[in-house]
Amino acid sequence: MQSLSLAYRQLNTLILGKSRAVRLALTCLIARGHLLIEDVPGVGKTTLAHGLAAVLGLHYQRVQFTSDLLPADILGVNIYQRDSGSFRFHQGPVFSQLLLADEINRASPKVQSALLEAMEERQVSIDGDSHPLPQPFFVIATQNPSEQLGTFPLPESQLDRFLMRISLGYPAADAERALLLGQDRRSLLADMTPCLQGDGLLQLQEKAAALTVTPDLADYVLALLQATRQEGSFLTGLSPRAGLALLSAARAWAMLEGRDHVLPEDVKAIFPAVAGHRLGLAGDATASLTALLDHVAIP
Amino acid sequence: MKHSLLRPAEMAVLLAVALVIVPLLFYLPLWLPALVELMLLLRACLLLRQSRLPGLAVLLPLLALAAAGVWLNLNTLIGREGGAALLILLLGFKVFESRQQRDWQVVLALGFFLSAMPLLFDQSPWSALWLVISLLALTWAMLRLAGDIPSGSARTAVQALLLSLPLMLVLFVVMPRLPGPLWSMPHDTHTAQTGLSDSMEPGSISQLVQREDAAFSVVFSGQAPSVSQMYWRIMILDDFDGRRWQNVHGLQQETAQLQGGQLIRYRLTGKPTRSRLPLLEYPLQAPGGSGLEPGRLFRLASDSDDMVRVDASSLLGSHYRQSLSLSDQDFYRRLPPGNPASRQLAMQWRMQSQGDAGFVREALLHFRLNGYRYTLTPPLLEGDNTTDAFLFSTRQGFCEHYASAFAFLARAAGIPARVVTGYQGALYNPLGRFWQVRSSDAHAWVEVWLQETGEWLRVDPTAAVAPQRVSDGVSQTIPALQPAMPLMGSRIPGWLLPLQQSWQAAGFAWQQWVVGYDAARQLNLYRLLGLGESVDAVAVLRALLLGGGLALLPLLWWWRKRPATAPLQAGRNLLVAALQCHGITIQPSDGPLDMLNKAAHLPKDVRVLLKQLLKEYAAMRYRHAELPAKQVQAWLRQVRSFAQQARKKRQRS
After folding, report:
1. Which residues from A are below 8 Å from B565, CB to CB?
2. Which of A11, A97, B280, B281 is geometrically suited to a Cys-Cys bond with A58, CB 3.0 to 4.6 A?
3. Is the same domain home to A72 and A218?
C-alpha cells in the first residue's frame, strides 16, 4: 500500500492537476484492466503511460498505429533461420508488460482485432504456436476523438475489452503554469523510481480482487445496471460483464483509498469511466451518467 | 430553511386530520366542521409562508367565542354532539400553537381519537370505509413526522395497517360488549328526525316517500307473506284537529285479543323512529318479552335511535277483537267542527248502507269510482274544511289524504276509527336473502271498529284508488300514474338494480355481523369456541391470549422476513433526518462518504461523532456479511441520541 501511494504521488508530479485521471489509470491497472485514453494530442496521454510503466517498474513498449500497420508488426513473426534451418519466433512489441498503443483507431480493423484478441486471451497464436504474454500485461490505448478522417473507430464489442475509458482534458490554469515553468517531462520520467519490485503488482492485484463486496453493495451495482437498461437515454444497457467490470474496478479503487471493503462511493467514482464507452457515449458526454448516479438510490 | 425537514411532515399531519373530520360535516352543525377545516387550511398557509403564529392572547378569546357559538347552537358542550364539537374546535386551535415535533404528535394523537368520532353518529359501511382512509392518512403522517423517507411512507403505512388488522379483529371479537348499543347516549334534540313523525298532515308522508334510503330489513323464518299483506304498523293517530292527525294516547289499556291468523316469525333490523319499531300486523307479543303498547304497537325501552335487531312474531290476518266501552267509542268518534259536506256525505251513506261493514264498502266504492287520483304532488288544500276540499274539489292525494278522509268519514258516520301509520310492502333482496323496507314504503291507512263483531278492521282506502300501490309498491305505482314527476323520475334505472341490491346486501351483512355483534352473539361465540360459559374476566383473558397470539403471527412473520439491514436502513433515515436539521439535504443516492463530505462544514464535535457513526454504518453494511444484532442495536441507540440532539438544536435556533 505504501508503494502504491508513492507511485500515485510520483505520477502526480509528472501529470499535473489530473489526480483523478491518474488515480483511475492506476485503478484500472490494479484491476487488471486495459485502459483507453481518449483525448486530443498533447495533453499527456503518452507521458501518463510512460509514467505508469516507470513507477510500477514495468517493461514498456510503444507502437504508433498507422493505417499500413500489419498484425505481424505488433504480434511478432516467425523468421527462417538460415544457419539452423528452422523458424524462430521474433516477439513483437506486444510482448511487454505495458504496451502503449498510440492512436489505435488509425490502424486497420485487422490489426485492431489482432491486438484486442491478444488483450483478451493474454497470449499470441502464430502459425499454430501460442506464445503467452508476460505477466502482468496491460494495454494503454489512446485515440483522438476529434480526427475522424482516415480512422477506423473501434466497434462496440472491442471497446468492451477496455476496462475503462478516461480522458485527461486540458489542465487547469495553475497546473498548466507549473507545467510551463517546470522541468522537462522527459527528464522527469527518467528520474522516476520504480515503487514495485518483482511480482509486487501481481500481489496488489490479487489483494484487490479479494476485497469484500457485501450483498448490499452488489444490490447497488445491480440497481445501476438496471437503471442503464431502463433509462431511455442509452441505446443498450450495460451487460453482465460490465457489472463484473464495475465490481473489479470498484475493488481496486477501494484499495487505493486504503479500505478493505467496497463502498457505494467507490462504485460511483469509477462508474463513468467504466460505463461510458460501453454505453456508446462520447468521451465528454458523461453528464447523463452523473445524472444516473444522482437518481439511483443506494438500496 | 431550518424548518425544511418538518414542514412536509406538518403538512401531512394537517392533511390527515382534515380528512378525519370530513364526515362530521354531516353530523354537526355545518358551520363548525367547516370552520375547523378552514382553520387547518389557514394553518397550512402559515406553514408555507413561514409566518408567525398568533399568540395565546388572540387564540384564547377566539376559542371562547367559538365555544360560545357551539353552546348557543347545541345548548351543550358534552355528550355526543357537544363533545365532538368541542374536540374538533380544540383541534382547530391546537394546530395554531403547534411549533415543535411534540405538538404535532399531540395533534396526530387527537386525530386518531377523532377518527372514531363519526362512528358515534353512524355505523354504516361508509363510516367504516372512511375510518380506514383516515387511519391510513394518519399512519402515513405519523411516518412522515417520525422522519421516515417520504417515498416509502405510504407503502409502509398500508403495510402497518395490514399487519395490525388481525389484532383489530381479535380485539373487536373478544372485548366484552355492553348490553345494548355501546354509544347509547341521549340523542340530541336539534337533529331532524327521519322516519315517520308522530303526527300526520297532508304532505308529511309524501316527503318521506321520495327518499330511497333503507328503513329496516326483515328476514322471515319460513315462508314470507305476500307483499300486499305486509302492513308494518308503527303508530296510531287517534285525534284529528281538522288538519292534522296525532296521537293523544286516548287508550290507556289494551284489552284486545287476536283470533285466528297465520303465525309469522321474523327478525327485524333497523333504526327505531322515536324509539318505535314497526311490526307486522298484528304482533303477538313484544320482542324481548316486554309488553306491547296499547294498540299493539312496539316501543323500545331505551331512548336510543341506534340500529337494533329484534326477533318478533305476528299473527297475519287475524281478527283484532276489542271490546270498547262507550266512552272509548266516543273517543274514536271525536271530530272537530267543520267539513259540513263530508259529514253530510257520511250520513247519507250511513242511511243507504247496512251496518258498519256496508258503510266501509260504500266509502271504498266512492273512492274507486269518482275519479280520485293517487299522486305525490296534490294541489294544496286551502281553507278550514280540508276534508271537504279534498273529497269534493281536488280529488288528488297521497295515502295520507285518503286515510285522513276515510277516517273522517267513518267518524262522521259514527263508526270508531283511527289512522295507522307505518310501512306497507317490502322488496326482496335475492343476494342477501332478506326483505328491504325503504322510506318510500311509508304508508298510512285506517282501522275502523265494527260494532257488529267488536273487532278492528284494517281499511286501506289508497288500495281502492291505486291497487298497484299495495301489490307492487309505490315505485311501481307512481311512474305509471305520473311519469313527469321530477323526483320520482330519477329513480334507479333497471340495469343498476343488481348493483343496488348488492349494496343493500352488503349493508345488511355489515349490519348483521359487525354492528349487530352484540353481547348475545359474543356469548354464543365464546361458548362455540369453548372459551367459557360467560364473558367474564377469565374468559376474556383467555381469548385475548389465544387470539392475540394468533394475531401477532403476521407481525412475527414480518419481523423475521425483514432484511437484517432494516435497522441499519432505519438508522440511516434517522441520520438523514438529523443532517436535515443541520440544514444538509441528503439524497437517497448518497452513500456514507457522500454524507460525511456534505457535512464538512458542521462543528467539529458533531462532525467527529457523525464520522464515527457513518464509519460504523459503512462497516456494518459493506464490510461484514453477518451482523451481530447487539452491535447493530448499540449503533442504532447512538444514532437515535445523535438525531435527538440535532432536533433539539434545531428547535433552539
Report:
1. 216
2. A97
3. no
A202 within some domain: no
The CATH number of whichever domain residue A218 belongs to comes to: 1.10.8.80
Helix/strand/coil for B123: coil
Smallest Cβ–Cβ distance between B623 and the set A261, A268, A298 belongs to A261
Instruction: Tell me whether residue B254 is exposed, middle or buried, using C-beta atoms within 10 angstroms of its C-beta: 0 to 12, 13 to 18, 19 or more.
Output: middle
Helix or strand run (H / E) with residue B174 = helix B150-174
A139 touches chain B (CB under 8 A): no
Residue A206 lies in a domain: no
Residue A257 and residue A224 share a domain: yes
B93-144 pLDDT, tens digit each: 999 988 887 899 999 999 999 999 888 888 788 888 999 999 999 999 988 8
Q: Does A216 touch chain B (CB under 8 A)?
A: yes
| DSSP conformation class of B178 | P
A68 plus A163 within the same structural domain: yes
Question: From the centroid of its chain, how far is CA A110?
Answer: 21
Closest CB from A214, A260, A265 relative to B593: A265
Residue in chain A lying closest to B624 (CA): A214
A131 and A172 housed in the same domain:
yes
Domain span at residue A241?
211-299
Are residues A68 and A166 both part of a single domain?
Answer: yes
Q: Is the pTM of this model over 0.80?
A: no
Rounded distance between C-alpha atoms, residue A264 and residue B592, angstroms: 8
Q: What is the ipTM of this complex?
A: 0.82
Question: Which tens digit of pLDDT belongs to each residue from A257-270?
Answer: 888 889 999 999 99
Q: Which residues of B are catalytically annotated?
A: 399, 443, 460
A183, B113, B172, B432, B503 from B177: Cα distances, Å: 94, 20, 9, 26, 28
Chain segment B335-374, per-residue pLDDT in tens: 888 889 999 999 998 888 888 888 888 888 888 888 888 8
Q: Do A264 and B622 touch (CB under 8 A)?
A: yes
Domain count, chain A: 2
Pure H helices in A15-127: 19-30, 45-56, 71-75, 109-121
B622/A214 Cβ within 8 A:
yes
Residue B474 binned pLDDT confidence (cut-offs 50, 70, 90): low
Instruction: Let me know whether A185 and A217 are in one domain.
Output: no
Cα–Cα distance between B264 and B220 in angstroms, integer?
A: 7
